[in-house]
Design brief:
The chain is of the alpha+beta class and 132 residues long. It contains 5 helices and 4 strands. A 4-stranded mixed β-sheet has the order 1-3-2-4, sandwiched between helices.
Length: 132
């Protein structure tokens, strides 16, 4: 069947590479400023998206996302990427880098404290809903 969607559908060019593959697939499709939101984050609220956009606009750097201080890692599944940072990510990937966390730690990333950890819980299977 022929489906029409409001936004373009982008198929991962790099399969089984996690978020890096999805982000780079968007960039290589021609998008040079990306708001990345994983579809399995069903607890994300409009406020989360609005606040990350505000943070990004106020800091005006290459990449913006939340940081989970309790767990000690970035939350790239809701993030904003500018072309300059996407180019750096592509270079990192081409050199064999596959850890998005290592990439983010070594670059100028704007991060903001995560207020509610539950919004970043991945729901991949029906049973995951029962564990909430």
């Amino acid at each position: 069947t022929n489906h029409k969607y409001e936004f373009p559908i982008i198929i991962d060019k790099y399969t089984n590479q996690g978020p890096i593959g999805g982000i780079l697939s968007c960039y290589e499709t021609g998008f040079h400023h990306i708001i990345f939101l994983a579809t399995d984050l069903i607890n994300i609220k409009p406020d989360n998206i609005e606040s990350i956009i505000r943070y990004h606009q106020s800091d005006n750097l290459g990449c913006t996302m939340f940081y989970n201080k309790n767990a000690g890692y970035y939350e790239p599944l809701l993030s904003i990427w500018k072309k300059s940072m996407l180019i750096e990510l592509k270079i990192y990937f081409e050199k064999g880098g596959r850890s998005l966390q290592k990439f983010l730690l070594s670059h100028n990333v704007v991060f903001h404290p995560l207020e509610e950890e539950n919004c970043f819980k991945n729901i991949n299977y029906p049973n995951d809903l029962l564990k909430q």
